[in-house]
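Hi R.,

Here's the chain you asked about this morning:
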Amino acid sequence: MIVALSLLVIEATFAKSKTKKITISGYVLDVANKPIEGVLIVVDNAKSNVTTNKKGFYKIRIKPDTKSIIAFSPERGGIEVAFTGLENVNFVFFETDTDDAKYISTELVEDLIAQNMKKIEENELGNNNFENIYQMISCRLPGVVVRGRSITIRGPSSMHDQHNPLFVVDGRETFDIDDINPRDVKSISVINSSAAAIYGSRGGMGVIVITLKKINNK
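And the predicted structure, written out as tokens:
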């Protein structure tokens, strides 16, 4: 009986240790050993809110059974390394791939955006009632403040000169949406987390994604 109880205690302790998160940290540098700011840290292809600071430093809590860690830079691509249990994991962006790191796919980038996107579809927009696109954004996107043609997304903070978020209309980046008719909008989304880092400094104030209806010209 004593042996059986001891085994149960050992098993319970082992199970608890497997689920308890650990803290890892490190630096992301370029080939000249200079820090890279704003690099998004991804764990097992899942989103996080962790990016590197001005010194290229990051810190994140992960599960002990984590398989891989990715450092994603909008300008440089992504590097994936296998997690081996070390509490210090550094990344260096070289000009080409190395044997122990590979660049992540476009599909993963799209998944990161989708996980952090609040999307409003056409049937929820009621777009016949709006005078302009700014009024639609003000009424339909949560966490967005519109004053005239000035738009602020709650959450992102930046020292950029740009005040409005970046707009992506049918896959193309722009800072001007004045000519968009609300009746032509199929869906509209807002990205206000670290996933906006995928767009680099351009997405420093967040990103609003607009998809327009396809018009068939017969």
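Residues 2-19 form the longest helix (18 residues).

Let me know if you need anything else.
M.
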